[in-house]
Backbone:
């Protein structure tokens, strides 16, 4: 698999379209629940602390952010990236890793080069959210999918992450044939080829230390790690990044 190499308007998906001020929330109950919610607050605080002031999420984006990163029980309502399970390795009833086949698909990708991984995913995620909400050639809300993935690069020893991080969003099935063009020139629609992926689940926060640790752990479990070890890996996030029980996966892509 070949990995993918402006400030915008606020999201209007959650705004009431017939409101004169266009500031009234479309779903008042959800709005009240989410404008102070953990997911929105996580991204707002992260952008502020990481000094990405111009990309801090407005409260208009609270509803779609919360929908994307809501509790674990809600994730089944969102379209998942489709795959075929080829096999899994287990030990004492626990799954160590899975081998999957992912088909060819279109992804919206943005590559950022901030000082830290947290800064990069914050900036990339907020730009993608604007594309998903309305800043696209269809002028419509595209719908949320999981996981949101980040492509990370490492040094040859797999001990240090590169500053270049690609954040990617899988286009929903209805938009796969004709992906809406992004208004943000930094976002590129990439067709990712079909590939074999070795994936291992892990809980908790994702940062430079945890990612390097998970890369090392999966490499030790694989019978033939040389088949998929290079300088690029994928981190897949399924749940609220502010949650203590966050669900993630590390992906190794089989080389051809």
Residues:
């Amino acid at each position: 698999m070949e990995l993918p190499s402006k400030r915008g308007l606020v999201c209007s998906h959650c705004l009431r379209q017939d409101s004169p001020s266009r500031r009234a929330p479309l779903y008042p109950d959800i709005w009240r629940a989410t404008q102070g919610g953990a997911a929105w607050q996580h991204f707002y605080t992260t952008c502020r602390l990481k000094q990405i002031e111009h990309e801090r999420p407005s409260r208009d984006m609270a509803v779609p952010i919360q929908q994307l990163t809501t509790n674990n029980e809600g994730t089944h309502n969102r379209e998942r990236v489709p795959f075929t399970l080829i096999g899994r390795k287990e030990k004492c009833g626990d799954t160590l890793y899975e081998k999957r086949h992912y088909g060819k698909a279109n992804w919206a990708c943005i590559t950022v080069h901030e000082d830290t991984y947290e800064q990069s995913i914050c900036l990339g995620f907020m730009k993608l959210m604007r594309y998903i909400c309305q800043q696209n050639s269809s002028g419509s809300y595209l719908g949320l999918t999981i996981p949101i993935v980040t492509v990370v690069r490492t040094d040859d020893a797999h001990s240090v992450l590169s500053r270049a991080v690609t954040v990617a969003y899988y286009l929903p099935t209805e938009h796969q044939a004709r992906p809406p063009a992004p208004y943000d020139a930094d976002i590129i629609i990439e067709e990712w080829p079909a590939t074999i992926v070795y994936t291992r689940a892990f809980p908790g926060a994702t940062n430079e230390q945890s990612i390097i640790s998970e890369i090392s752990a999966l490499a030790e479990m694989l019978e033939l790690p040389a088949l998929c070890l290079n300088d690029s890996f994928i981190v897949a996030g399924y749940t609220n990044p502010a949650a203590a029980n966050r669900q993630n996966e590390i992906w190794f892509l089989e080389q051809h």
